[in-house]
Amino acid sequence: MNKLEKKLLEKISDLHTMPSGAFNIRKNGQLFDRASTKEIEITPKKNKNGINIKIKDGTKNKSVHIPVIITVGGLNDLVYNDFYIGKDCDVLIVAGCGIHNATCKTSLHSGIHSFHVGQNSKVRYVEKHIAEGKSGDKILNPITKIVLQKNSFMQIETLQLDGVTSSLRKTIARLGEGATLKVQENISTSEQQWTKTYFKVLLAGRDSRAEIVSHSVAKGRSFQEFKSNLIGQELCFGHVECDGIMMDEARIVSVPMIDAQNSNSSLIHEAAIGKIASDELIKLMSLGLSKEEAENMIIEGFLLG
Amino acid sequence: MLEIINLSYRAQDDNQDKEILDNINLKFEDNYTYVITGPNGSGKSTLAKLVMGILPASSGKILFNGMNITSLPINERAKLGISYAFQTPVTFKGLKIRDLIDVACGQKKSFDQICEILSKVGLCAKDYINRPLDDKLSGGELKRIEIALALCQEAKLNIFDEPEAGIDLWSFDNLIDIFNSLKNSTNIIVSHQKRILHISDYIILLKNGQIEKFGKKEEVVPLLEKRQCARLVRSK
Ligand SMILES: Nc1ncnc2c1ncn2[C@@H]1O[C@H](COP(=O)(O)OP(=O)(O)O)[C@@H](O)[C@H]1O
Ligand SMILES: [Mg+2]
User: Fold this and answer.
1) Which ligand has an atom closest to residue B39 CA?
2) What residues pair up with A237 in beta bridges, in sequence order?
3) d(Cα A111, Cα A117) in Å, to the nearest integer?
């Protein structure tokens, strides 16, 4: 791997060297390196691009890294990654895509991920999307499908920073009895970039719980759209919070939908979109920061905090 | 050290000009503690905000150590050595208590140093430094952190707007200790609290945006007590 590739890899997955556990590194549309472990088996798909990741019952405190890096233009990379997580697991999964496109041709990556999380298992899924390089378009269209079995828990942390020309993100989840899904999605756009992110969460099981928090920062003339659909079919709890900060001439749209199909469902949607709060700016300025420094600190905390 | 000359603040209210502060003249000397008191809505917070630059003066002048700071932005005033603790502490999304302490101190602090600062306001650093400064903290916790941030700045002029609000009895003693220990700075405290009035050197009594009385504590406290007494008699 060259310097640029190593830097990208570090940015999306915090990896300085090869990961210690199971991993699959994909570079410019091809396998770069892969390793399975005793508990985590990664095998390529036969009929299409992508991998199956099987995690054995009872696997605890282990991690899987599946970063993707793209350093060429004109690539249309479509991959299917399917995770099968057994019962009673506790694992960390780090995915992400870094594009550095210095050409004038478009680079596109669509990662279709599915997660089957077994009973009583706990999964933390971290996904970072970063795009660099001036001219060519950099497009990322991730789809995440999740099935949570009884009493399982999944926490998703996604981050997409400035530079992605356009992005269409879809997250679809089905929660069984006692299952919990927590999502923290942070997105920043600038210039003429746009991102649309859609959530559909089916609270199918009794005592299931979903908490989705979206923080978006839109600068320049960029555009972001957040749509969510929470469906309660049982005694369940769902909370969606969409917080947006707009700067310059940017625009943010939030479309909430909550559908309580059962009278024991408790579903909440909160959305607040506006400029940086003036009292936050004033407070930081009163501690000695210039207006610009204060704005940067507020945005950085909001996205990375 | 601070001089306020013919200072006025007008705001638009129902399309009418409303005189919120009317021709205020005050002189603050080095290393004394001043309490601004007066009824709700008399303009105490407005006066404090004008000194910090949070609100713009409509007319008049503010001099800080002889320098005209009337149109200086907030951060420039902070750099000159003015701190301001808000009546209602500001909360953030994603910023940690530690981040704000670092900014207030102007440098990164070690855990031990943060510990020392937070213990002054009765908080244990271990439980707090990595917590977000957001509305999950109680009103009392927020208020204590607000005061700690002001202390971090080691300013020449400290302004506290109703520091006692939301603080429980135990930490009230703490608060008095803090004010008593601020000997090398000028302090302006907006307050209604008797015990805070008693630790001051001078008291400014505001009424309807004007100074009703400005004098030594020994002079003003008896006047306030007499009024309090008269009010009690009348209400009986
Ligand atoms: N932006 C504003 N527009 C109109 N009236 C205001 C504004 N800000 C404050 N006021 C009024 O000014 C008066 C003084 O407010 P304030 O300084 O907060 O009083 P205090 O701190 O003494 O309670 C109040 O009557 C308040 O309603
Ligand atoms: Mg006030």
Assistant:
1) 1
2) A209, A266
3) 19
Q: Are residues A240 and A289 in the same domain?
A: no
CA B162–ligand 1 middle distance (angstroms): 15
Residues of A within 8 A of B99 (CB-CB) are: 297, 301
Whether A243 contacts A216, CB under 8 Å:
yes
Range of the domain at A290: 277-305
Which ligand is closest to the CA of B11, given by its number? 1
Closest CA to A179 of A150, A157, A146, A144: A150
The CATH number covering residue B192 comes to 3.40.50.300
* A297·B106 Cβ contact <8 A: no
- Is there a contact between A297 and B149 if contact means CB atoms under 8 Å apart? no
- Report CB contact under 8 Å: A286, B78: yes
For chain A, how many structural domains are there in total?
Answer: 2
B78 touches chain A (CB under 8 A): yes
Question: Does residue A303 sit in the same domain as residue A290?
Answer: yes
**Centre of ligand 2 from the C-alpha of residue A244, in Å:** 30
Q: pTM score, two decimals?
A: 0.88
Q: What is the span of the domain harbouring residue B166?
A: 2-235
Please name which of A97, A117, A73, A107 lies closest in space to residue A24, comparing C-alpha atoms. A97
- Residues at CB less than 6 angstroms from ligand 1: B 11, 13, 18, 20, 40-46
**Judgement on whether residues A149 and A75 belong to the same structural domain of the protein:** yes
Tens of pLDDT along chain A (305 residues)? 888 888 888 888 877 777 788 999 999 999 999 999 999 999 999 999 999 999 999 999 999 999 999 998 888 999 999 999 999 999 999 998 999 988 888 999 999 999 999 999 999 999 999 998 877 899 999 999 999 999 999 999 999 999 999 999 999 999 999 999 999 999 999 999 999 999 999 999 999 999 999 999 999 999 999 999 999 999 999 999 999 999 999 999 999 899 999 999 999 999 999 999 999 999 999 999 999 999 999 999 999 87
The verdict on A176 and A303 lying in the same domain is: no
- Please count the structural domains in chain B: 1
Mutate to test the interface with B, among A217, A273, A286, A297 (most CBs of B within 10 A): A286
Joined tokens for residue A161 = 């920073």
Judging contacts by C-beta atoms under 8 Å, the chain B residues touching residue A159 are none
Q: Quick one: which of A216, A108, A103 has its CA closest to A165?
A: A108
Contacts of B145 (CB under 8 A, 6+ apart): B89, B97, B100, B118, B121, B123, B128, B133, B137
